Amino acid sequence: MKELRFPITDPFVLEELLPQRQPMIMVDALMYYDKKSLVSELTISEENIFVADGFLSETGLLEHIAQSVALHTGYTEYLEEKPTKEGYIGAIKKAEILKTPAINKTIETEVKIIHAAIGITLVKTITKLEQEVIATTEMKTMLKP
After folding, report:
1. pTM of whole model > 0.90?
2. Going from the N-terminus, what domains does the chain have, and what CATH number goes with each?
3. Most buried residue among 37, 67, 95, 117 by CB atoms closer than 10 A?
């Protein structure tokens, strides 16, 4: 398979790269990818199941971050012509949420792969809203065998 052109915003392509399905898809753009990092985006819609009182919840923010990690894995597997695998958060070592975004705002998450082996990935993430850091995490994700 060949590399796709960035940004990737086609919802059907993103659905192929993620194990989640609507209404649980929490990434609407893949802006950048390399073997050790990724940048994703999400525009918060009023219909988002994690929105309450006009803001994305902390749970929704963490789900977006976890799906950004999954998107890195999914795009890597796409390039290797392998099927997308399901995964889950194995552990959140550190998470700091400074602000939750309002509807109609776009957040950007940068994922840095610290270590990946045997289906376990350790990452650091930074999520920004209009260049302001609103969340940082260190987490471990695991792929289902």
Report:
1. yes
2. 11-143 (3.10.129.10)
3. 67
**Is a pLDDT exceeding 90 seen at residue 85?**
no
DSSP string, 39-95: EEEEEPPTT-TTEETTEE-HHHHHHHHHHHHHHHHHHHHHHTT-----EEEEEEEEE
| CA dihedral sign of residues 51, 57, 61, 62 | negative
Token couple for 117:
């082996």
Q: What is the pLDDT of residue 21?
A: 80
CA-based nearest residue to 68, from 21, 101, 114, 31: 31
What pLDDT sits at residue 20? Answer: 81
Count CA within 13 A, CB hemisphere, residue 113.
20
